[in-house]
Structure of Ig-like domain-containing protein:
Amino acid sequence: MMNKLVIFLLFAENISALPLACLPSQPVQAVEGGSATLQCSLDPPNDLSSTAVEWNRGHTCYVHVYRSLRDDPDSQMLQYRDRTALNHGDLSRGVSTLTISNVSLSDNGSYEVYLPQWGVRCSTHLTVATKEQEKQTKRKDSSTTSPPAGERNEASNREAGRAAIVPTALLILCVLIVLLVLKSGKIRSCKKEGEPKTSEGDQQSAAEEGLVGSEVADGLLKGQSRQNRPF
């Protein structure tokens, strides 16, 4: 049992003696008036809740100080008073997360976290943009992702033209069908009307021919009777 305890203590001592590295986060960007979150983490992770954690600019200008298990606002620069918050929950995981609220252009620059117990330093960079710069960036992004206005208008005109072709073609087809129907109806009616007219005309011409024939016959008979009379 004693041997196991000794081995465990030696193992724990070796772990605590491992060199620590502080890994910074990627450069942080924020908009004037917004908030920015800076973060650095130990590798391998080590509990920071019982150690001093100092966020500074230029080694002596303290942005936020944590020591004796609490924040120490007395050591803080007036510029950052009531604008910083350290995430105490992340400290136990070996992560120091600092949030700066209501950032301004004067907050631009490099920030460093220093762990005096291990002599480890880690730095990250904050870039603060004005609201106008943010608007310009959004406009550039929207212009690169969306087609120009001329292309959009041309595409919409093409779509409108395509949409108008189908109804127009259908309308023309309907008109042609109606015209064909009307024309075929007229042809049929003309045929029906023409047939009785032709028969009546034939009857009339036949009657006229019969009348002429009878008149000719009468004329011949009268002529013969005149010739047979005595002088």
Remarks:
- The first strand starts at residue 21 and ends at 24.
- Strands lie at 21-24, 28-31, 36-43, 53-57, 61-67, 70-71, 84-86, 95-100, 109-115, 120-129.
- The chain is about 50% helix and 25% strand.
- The two ends are 188 Å apart (CA to CA).
